[in-house]
């Protein structure tokens, strides 16, 4: 195993701890401003809300002052470490790998936020899309193995598909996320882009069926689709990396 494959999960732990205040700040219901105030000891929103969000929080998920739980212990840290480890195992190199790590980082935050409050904030989906397309453009400029035209075509196809699905009730956040993820997989191959979507929909269908059978959900209850898109993309990237 190469050195960078051993270092990737450690880097993920560090990146995940930087991600924790972002996850806490953005995991709020739609229409609410980002906030990392503690409900127990600082009920008032901070005057400069944006800067407050950059404050680091300890990995035990508790308020540093009064120990009230603000989030799950070690969850962003371990999620990001696992995502980085998976990217490292895939073995991509160069700027294409940088694009994968960028999406692994923002995807970890989006997965946790969507699971918690069923939304994919623009504050993360837009940097994810812009960063991915920028890094893939740089990869193309360095003549790395892959195709920018195919990445853009896959992103456009996913954009059209998910915009149509949004008419049927899926969120526009899913559209923006699918554009980034399909661009990344499309850079590699059409098979990867197609597989990513198939795995995402199969996983979501399996979980929805399980919830119906277990009577935890009803036909009307909504299931956050973002986590399935992210896990499906990771699976497709790993399957097609060999
Ligand atoms: Zn507190």
Automatic annotation (TrEMBL):
One of its GO terms (molecular function) is aspartic-type endopeptidase activity. Keywords: Hydrolase, Membrane, Signal, Transmembrane, Transmembrane helix. The keyword ATP-binding does not apply. The keyword Hydrolase applies. Residues 1-20 form the signal peptide. It is an enzyme of class 3 (hydrolase). Residues 105-208 form the Prepilin type IV endopeptidase peptidase domain. The chain crosses the membrane at residues 78-96, 123-141, 148-170, 190-213, 222-240. InterPro entries: Prepilin_IV_endopep_pep, Prepilin_peptidase/N-MTase. Its EC number is 3.4.23.43. Belongs to the peptidase A24 family. This is Prepilin peptidase. It comes from Streptomyces halobius.
């Amino acid at each position: 195993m190469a050195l960078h494959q051993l270092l990737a999960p450690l880097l993920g732990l560090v990146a995940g701890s930087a991600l924790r205040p972002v996850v806490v700040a953005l995991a709020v219901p739609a229409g609410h401003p980002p906030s990392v105030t503690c409900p127990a000891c600082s009920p008032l929103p901070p005057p400069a809300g944006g800067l407050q969000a950059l404050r680091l929080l300890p990995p035990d998920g508790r308020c540093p002052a009064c120990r009230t739980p603000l989030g799950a212990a070690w969850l962003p840290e371990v999620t990001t470490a696992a995502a980085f480890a998976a990217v490292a195992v895939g073995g991509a190199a160069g700027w294409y790998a940088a694009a994968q790590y960028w999406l692994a980082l923002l995807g970890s935050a989006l997965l946790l936020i969507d699971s918690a409050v069923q939304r994919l904030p623009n504050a993360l989906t837009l940097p994810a899309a812009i960063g991915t397309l920028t890094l893939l453009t740089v990869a193309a400029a360095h003549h790395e193995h892959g195709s920018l035209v195919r990445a853009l075509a896959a992103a456009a196809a996913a954009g059209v598909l998910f915009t149509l699905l949004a008419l049927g009730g899926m969120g526009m956040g899913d559209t923006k996320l699918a554009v980034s993820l399909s661009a990344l997989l499309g850079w590699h191959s059409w098979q990867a882009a197609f597989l990513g979507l198939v795995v995402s929909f199969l996983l979501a269908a399996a979980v929805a069926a399980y919830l119906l059978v277990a009577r935890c959900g009803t036909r009307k209850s909504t299931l956050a689709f973002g986590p399935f898109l992210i896990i499906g993309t990771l699976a497709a990237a790993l399957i097609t990396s060999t």
